[in-house]
Amino acid sequence: MKPGLDMQSIRVSSDPAVQYLLRLGDTCLILAQRLGEWCGHAPVLEEDIALTNMALDLLGQARAVLTRAGEIETRGHDEDQLAFLRDERDYLNLTLVELPNGDFAFTVLRNFAMASLLRLLWEQLAASSDTELGAIAGKAVKEARYHRQHAADWVVRLGDGTEESARRMQDALHRLWLYVPEFFEADAVDEYAASSGLGPRWADLRDAWLAETTAVFDKAKLQLPPEPKFRSEGKRGRHSEHMGYILADLQYLQRAYPGGVW
Amino acid sequence: MYTQAMDTGPKEERKAVRSVEEAERERRFDTRIDAGEFIEAKDWMPEHYRKTLVRQISQHAHSEIVGMLPEGNWISRAPTLKRKAILLAKVQDEAGHGLYLYAAAETLGTSRDQMLDALHTGKAKYSSIFNYPSLTWADMGVIGWLVDGAAIMNQVPLTRCSYAPYARAMVRVCREESFHQRQGFEALLTMMTKGTEAQRAMVQDAVNRWWWPSLMMFGPPDSESTHSEQSMRWGIKRIGNDELRQKFVDAAAEQAKVLGVSLPDPELKWNEARQHHDFGAIDWSEFWRVVGGDGPCNRERLAARVKAWEEGAWVREAALAHARKAVLKENAA
Amino acid sequence: MSSTLTPNPSPSGRGEQSEWPLWEVFVRSKAGLDHKHCGSLHATDPTMAIQLARDVYTRRQEGTSIWVVRSDQIVASDPGEKAMYFDPMEDKIYRHPTFYELPKSVEHI
Predict the structure, then answer these.
(1) Fewer CB near the last or first residue (10 Å), C or N of chain A?
(2) Is residue C109 part of a domain?
(3) Which tens digit of pLDDT belongs to each residue from A177-197?
(4) Which domain does C42 fall in, by range?
């Protein structure tokens, strides 16, 4: 960060490679942001540490991907400029990750859904035509595997625990399901990624994701909700009302101290 | 530092009448202590020694957990991704320290639930420093520099505490703690030497607010400490409050010069004859007020911990219920 | 930990119904070394215990292998019997290599 720089928002490139990376990096970043909120407030001390580990892993993934996005963009944007200085409509995370944490059931269910998706993504990205992204993926896939297992265990524990936990988990699934179709929407950005070898279309991960997650939902004795008609659009920069509040927190210091060095 | 709360508790009544056998056991125990031996979990120990340790270790653990809150406040607002990661890791370490300490206390015959209940109902104390608010990002650096700095000074001697599980937990804690102070100091140094005028003002303001409370972390003067003597006798406390506080002032005064901040004490100056820094009088009425529950954040801190515990009850119950179901299934198979 | 002679008393008095059981954690930091006891934690089942042990006790790359054991499953020697169990080893110093003086030329043996 050069001191004296204007703290107005930066403009990002509409290059599909950059957009593809921002979807991934922003999703990790905003999920990490939400998980960090549990620090000091988890139901049991041991889980506090576990959730924070996940947040740190995701933050690390976000940093690596945003850095790479900045390099590909060639406008000289580093991880912090991208993370802290965009306008809301230029963040491309899935809407699901910006939703409030809710209760522990919603949190672990979202962790499970996201870790399953990310694991499938990272596995394919390991063979990316962009070797740096491939290297990032090689490390991240191990983290995603662990997150997935940890979260899946909790989904089952709560789904098949007490009546109250089962009710909360079912409610969480109904809420989560509204935001799942967005994962697998196809568009030109994905087409570019697939044809250039940068990475898979997210739509191509749908079958594997569904198979994996429904197996766990079965074990957790959860009912699959009906296919929703609602479509969220975070990947295209159109967010829920929650995003504004996240950014107000996230961006505050950078905006309030122009030219600051931290 | 976390023994500060110990010194402010009521003077415990020791059993006046003891059997000849018990007096002999206690004499042998004292001999072990004097010889510098370690006491392990299942060794015989005077009931008062056990009670003192349960209170001290559990209050130390509570301090770590409550200490997560003023810093946790700023995770979402950290100014760079690197600082966010560092703060997350630091606060997570504090949870870990709390956990190691609860584990050490449990070797003495208490349980996690009992200890948490004592905290939540106000029976157990935690270090009063965490009843102060974290108002700016610079507070994160100053907490690392001064609060963790004071904690380290207190914790290093505890690695030689006579009760071995506590000593071992402290070794682990100290290994991790050195990063905490360094990251705080480094964050401040960056803002002071490379930052803007506004950042420097933010740092100085934070120092002004945290300096005196940090000195209070070492507890009342030795002359007024009700428990120090017995704790020293038993190798639980190794160095007196005044000596630790002086060490801290001497170190911090030099560190402040490196940072380029002033410490809010007009009487702070080097005394050539004593070879130490003289410093001004501490406002002990503020200390007692905060310890007694009337500091800026006492109610909020406790409320946050109680809320987390109560809202998490269904989670803990569900996990137990599921585990029981699994065992039943396994037995039936 | 329970001794060979006395069962582990339930500290809360309410039994283990509402509290998560306590587990002792042992970590092997490098291939070739022993598992070392590093502390305890609460968990409801073995899988959770291992995962939490990984999250709590190996954050600084301190582990290649983790063992967890329920605390009430550990059998320990009775400290009261320390003398009987361990003192007899004291005078058998011929078991130690330092007991044997060899000429400097074969010091490395």
Answers:
(1) N
(2) no
(3) 999 999 999 999 999 999 999
(4) 22-77
Nearest CB to B79; choose among A55, A60, A253: A253
Give every CB contact of residue B21 below 8 A, 6+ residues apart in sequence: none
Interchain CB contact of C48 with A (< 8 Å): yes
Task: Check CB contact of C20 with chain A, cutoff 8 Å.
Answer: yes
- CA distances, A87 to each of A72, A90, A257, B193 (Å): 20, 6, 17, 30
**What are the structural domains, with CATH classification, of chain A?**
16-256 (1.20.1260.10)
Burial label for A184, CB within 10 Å (0-12, 13-18, 19+), is middle
Calculate how close chain B gets to A29, using CA atoms only, in Å: 9
> Closest Cα to residue B142, out of B257, B249, B62, B259?
B259
Kindly state the average pLDDT of the residues A21-50. Answer: 97
Q: For position B5, what pLDDT does the model report?
A: 42
| pLDDT 10s digits, B130-174 | 999 999 999 999 999 999 999 999 899 999 999 999 999 999 999
Residue in A with minimal Cα distance to B311: A43
Distance separating alpha carbons of residues B282 and B141, to the nearest angstrom = 23
**Interface membership of C105 toward B (CB under 8 Å):** no
d(CA A236, CA B180): 40
Whether B91 sits inside 8 A of A259 (CB atoms) is: no
- Could you tell me whether strands B276-278 and C2-3 are parallel, antiparallel, or unpaired per DSSP bridges? unpaired
Q: Which one-letter DSSP state was computed for residue B293?
A: I
Q: Is the pLDDT of residue C9 over 70?
A: no
Q: Confirm or reject contact between C58 and chain B (CB < 8 A).
A: no
Residue C93 covered by a domain: no
| Cβ within 8 Å of residue B332, ≥6 positions away | none
Over residues A156-169, mean pLDDT: 98
CATH of the domain at C45: 3.10.20.520
How many domains does chain C contain in total? 1
C11 is a domain residue: no
Sign, CA dihedral B233-B234-B238-B240, equals negative
DSSP string, chain C: -EESSSPPP-TTSS-SSSSPPEEEEEEE-STTSPEEEEEEEE-SSHHHHHHHHHHHH-TTS--SEEEEEEGGG-EE--GGGHHHHHGGGTT-GGGSGGG----GGGTT-
State the complex-level ipTM.
0.96
Q: How many CB atoms lie within 10 A of CB B192?
A: 18
Look at residue C12 and tell me if it is in a domain: no
Q: Distance between CA B328 and CA B312 in Å, rounded?
A: 25
C75-76 and C2-3: which strand pairing?
parallel
Amino acid at A18: V
Q: Which range among A199-203, B316-320, C70-74 shows the weakest confidence by mean pLDDT?
A: C70-74
pLDDT at B223: 86
